[in-house]
Amino acid sequence: MLKYSMLVLWFMLVGALVVQLSVKHAPLPGPEQSPTTTIVGQLHTTHVLAPQCPCSLRLAQHLQQRHPGAHESILIAGDDPLIADQLKMAGWEVINDVQQAEQVGIHGAPWLLIQDDAGRRHYSGGHGPAEHISGTVTYQEQVIRNNLHQGVQTVPYPSYGCATSTALKSERKFMGMEL
Asked: Residue 142 belongs to a domain with what CATH number?
């Protein structure tokens, strides 16, 4: 009997691990994007990051290595003074605000949002193609922005990362663990 109990316990633990890995590597849900090629005014690029999210930290390192373009900022969905200070020292405008991310329909990070002066979304998704298991991203945010300036519509890349909104965090809970 003990042998079968141990086997059942082993299957439950392996099952929990599989569920955790599956949910953690699922693409983040994003806001609806209505394709439009007419840009009103300037394009504004917002990079959304999440505190203590490995994918966001990799993106923050990438962004620190280049200067921000015109109308480009970083929104940290939470409080991470160290990352915020490092990005500010690199010349970035940084805003810490979970509610602002939720108001524009972003529930996870990292996320790339490009809007025009009228607030119309021209791009909402990942920063580039990602290798699904490792999460390694080939950052393409500047190519995406240049394509939009040239009138080329870009299909959004999926974004893999961490939940930032309360709704998505509770959706991704399993047996009391945040996935």
From this structure: 3.40.30
Q: For the chain, what is the domain count? A: 1
| Matching residue, tokens 């633990």 | 13
Please name every residue paired with 126 in a beta bridge, in sequence order, or none if there are none: 157
Residue 149 within a domain: yes
Integer angstrom CA distances of residue 157 from 29, 34, 45, 141: 12, 15, 15, 10
- Tens of pLDDT, residue by residue over 72-81, are 999 998 888 8
In a domain, 128, yes or no: yes
Alpha helices in 29-122 (DSSP H): 54-64, 81-89, 98-103
CA atoms within 13 A on the CB side of 95: 12
Please indicate, yes or no, if residue 17 is contained in any of the structural domains. Answer: no
- Out of 6-10, 37-41, 65-69, give the one with best mean pLDDT: 65-69
Domain that holds residue 56: 24-173
Q: Is the distance from CB of 114 to CB of 149 less than 8 angstroms?
A: no
